[in-house]
Hints:
Elements: H1 2-23, E1 30-31, E2 47-55, H2 79-82, E3 85-90, E4 96-101, H3 108-122, E5 126-127, E6 139-152, E7 161-170, E8 179-188, H4 198-218
Helix pairs in contact: 3-4
Amino acid sequence: MKNFLSSIGTRVLGACLLAAALSGCVSTRDVVAPRVNTAANPAQGMPVRISKVEDLRLFQIKPASPVTPSLMDDQISNEAIRVRAFGRQRNSYGMALGDVLLPEGQTVAGLVETVVARSLRESGYRVVSGNDADYAQAKPLVVRIDKLWTWRDLTAFKGGLVTNYEVAVTDPTAPSQQTLVVTGDIKADPWSAGDEGQWGYALRVGLDEISAKLKAKLAR
Length: 220
């Protein structure tokens, strides 16, 4: 009986080791702080204010594609995690592992707000806050995040990270509620990341492209 139980234990252990090998590693949440550039307000310019930033990204449980946002342990209803999440690790077999999060106190909406404010300032607009005298008279803008996710393309050489995005900026006071939309995806070379780390670098590359495209639309 002792030998029989020992044999069963060995087989169970072997199965567990095989499962661990296939999964790659234990799922954990990595915290990454990307470097996000800012810009100072111009001395003169039309005052605007960012009145709202809506994070409307759709998360799914066990999505078929890594492009779709998801969270480990199926915690897509956990807002405290969801608002900080911008990517998810996967092993060489494509199996989903741990989340990639911004540090506590930071959110994806906050980063996008910073990027939109930078684009406006560099385009000649003066972005005001509640402490400014002309805040009430400033044109209100609403920012909507439909997509912003960084994922690893395992089919590509070097397994580069790709950030896909769709961000809209709307002037609700305009007669037709004029909206500027920037959308796309951009791949970041993992060997260019430096000490910023691959995930932080890839997200920053995506945010910089959002800024550049938004500035181009504002210039028209």
